[in-house]
UniProtKB/TrEMBL annotation:
The keyword Transmembrane applies. The chain crosses the membrane at residues 7-25, 40-57, 64-84. This is Membrane protein. Keywords: Membrane, Transmembrane, Transmembrane helix.
Length: 180
């Protein structure tokens, strides 16, 4: 195997490995961890590792095994790159949620609301059994407000933020979240 092929394999394998670990640790789908794409990416990565081991044990198969390694690591990388934007978006949303989860009082939430208003990064906390996709879409498109689904348990400090957000929309846009 020439040095160019070695570098290609090294880059493919390393990148696929790093993305597989990142996606595995951060992916959360609607029903579980490990989407179908990630499962296949892991399997192809495993095939690539198996072929790497075969490369050193059987000299007659080296040409074929090299091609299989490039294909397996390449497919694993492509599948991981397909998953990565969705996973990255979820990670960013978790970071935002974590920032707000540390705020415990309505007074602190009022300060945060004024900071968010100045920065143009408003958030709406959606409570209830179901997540209202249309509301989230409308708030994002019309006002550039991110929506975070909070589940069934209403948290008073986040409800305080929502009231401030609703008042802001009514005063400045003659529109309120309740109107949807």
């Amino acid at each position: 195997m020439n040095s160019r092929t070695k570098y290609i394999l090294l880059i493919l394998a390393t990148t696929a490995f790093v993305l597989t670990i990142y996606n595995h640790n951060n992916e959360l789908t609607e029903t579980s961890f490990d989407s179908i794409e990630l499962k296949y990416a892991k399997r192809f990565f495993g095939i690539g590792v198996l072929c790497a081991a075969l490369y050193f044990f059987n000299k007659t198969w080296r040409s074929l095994v090299t091609k299989i390694m490039i294909g397996a690591f390449g497919i694993s990388l492509v599948l991981n790159l397909y998953i990565f934007p969705r996973v990255y978006k979820t990670v960013q949303l978790k970071k935002i949620y974590y920032e707000y989860s540390e705020i415990e009082t309505c007074a602190e939430m009022e300060k945060r609301f004024s900071t968010d208003l100045k920065n143009g990064k408003l958030v709406y906390f959606q409570f209830g059994i179901g997540y209202d996709i249309e509301l989230a879409k409308t708030l994002k498109e019309k006002y550039k407000i991110k929506t975070i689904g909070m589940g069934c348990i209403i948290q008073s400090e986040k409800e305080c933020y929502n009231k401030l957000l609703n008042e802001y929309l009514k005063e400045n846009h003659n529109d309120g979240i309740i109107d949807y």
